[in-house]
Structure formats: C-alpha cells, structure tokens
Amino acid sequence: MPVAAGHRAAKSLESASTVGPDTCLGIVETCRRFGISLRAIRHYEAFGLLSPRRVEGARVYGGAELRALTLILRFKAIGLSLAEMRRQLRLYGLPSPRACSPSAHTLAEGEQAVAELERRRQCIDAMLMELHLIRANVARRLSARTGASSDGP
C-alpha cells in the first residue's frame, strides 16, 4: 500500500470521528477533511458508492455519506476494488439501512468477507515477516562491510 493511501485512510478515520451524525458538508469541505480530490469523490459517486443529497444543485454530504466515505478510503487502503467496496458497503448497511436487510445471503456474504480479509491479513503478515528478515540481513551485511572498512590501516 502506498504511504499516501495509508495516510489518507488514517486522516479519513480521524476526520470521520470529528463529524457528528447531523453534520452536513459541501463537496469542497468534504474533500478537504478527507484529503481527497474532487475528481475522486465524484468517481465514487458515479460508481454508486456515495449518494449525496442535492440542495439547490450542490452536493451535500451528511453523516451516512461521510461514514461511507470513511469506509471507502479504508477499503481503498487495503486494496479492494470498486465492486468489492460496493459489496462491503452493503454489509455495513450503506448507502442506506435498507440496502442491507438481514438474510441468509447477507450472512454468507459477511462470512465470505471476513474469510477474505483474514486471508489478506495472513498474506500481509507473511510479507511483513519476510521484509523484516530482509531488512535485518541487509543491516547485518552493511554493518559487516562498514566494520571491515574501518579496520583498515
């Protein structure tokens, strides 16, 4: 995951925690708070991930949209596709609570989502372990090289 995406996800979680359920923000303020571009937020809207209200033609993002945007950025940070994001948002009851009425299908989707995230976490954990070993090996080799060059005449 690029550092910028991780930073945006952290910023969005921080931003979302300071926004109450009755908060309404315009598109520019929403983008500023979440650290995303106007193009990105419009892309999420065009794909059906966000559905802000319109007030005199202007987009207005309320609590549900801000929560959805927080989740979208989290999903993006862990590498989900737009289609996967849409499925995940439904599990969270977004864009509206009616989007996810309890059913056996919803339960199965939820279990599948948990299993997929667990699989991704195992892969990430394995990669982190490997990278720690590689880093330690490089540090050891650099230290040995630095020590050998400082032992000279």
Provide an overview of this structure:
With 153 residues, this protein is mostly helical. It contains six helices and three strands; from the N terminus they run αβααββααα. The protein has helices spanning 3-17, 27-34, 38-46, 63-77, 82-91, 104-150; strands at residues 25-26, 53-55, 58-61. Strands 1-3-2 form a three-stranded antiparallel sheet. Strand 2 (53-55) and strand 3 form a beta hairpin. The N and C termini lie far apart (46 Å).
Per DSSP, the total helix count is 6
Rg value: 21 Å
Shape: flat
Helix vs. strand class: mainly alpha
Strand content: 5-15%
Largest sheet: 3 strands, antiparallel
Give the strand line-up of the largest sheet.
1-3-2
What is the H/E order? HEHHEEHHH
Global mean pLDDT: 84
> Based on DSSP secondary structure assignment, what is the total number of beta strands?
3
Helical residue percent band: 55-70%
Oligomer: single chain
Measured between the Cα atoms of the first and last residue, the distance is 46 Å
Low-pLDDT ranges: none
Keywords:
153 residues, three-stranded antiparallel beta sheet, mainly alpha
Write the layout of secondary structure elements.
Elements: H1 3-17, E1 25-26, H2 27-34, H3 38-46, E2 53-55, E3 58-61, H4 63-77, H5 82-91, H6 104-150
Antiparallel strand pairs: 1-3, 2-3
Helix pairs in contact: 1-4, 4-5
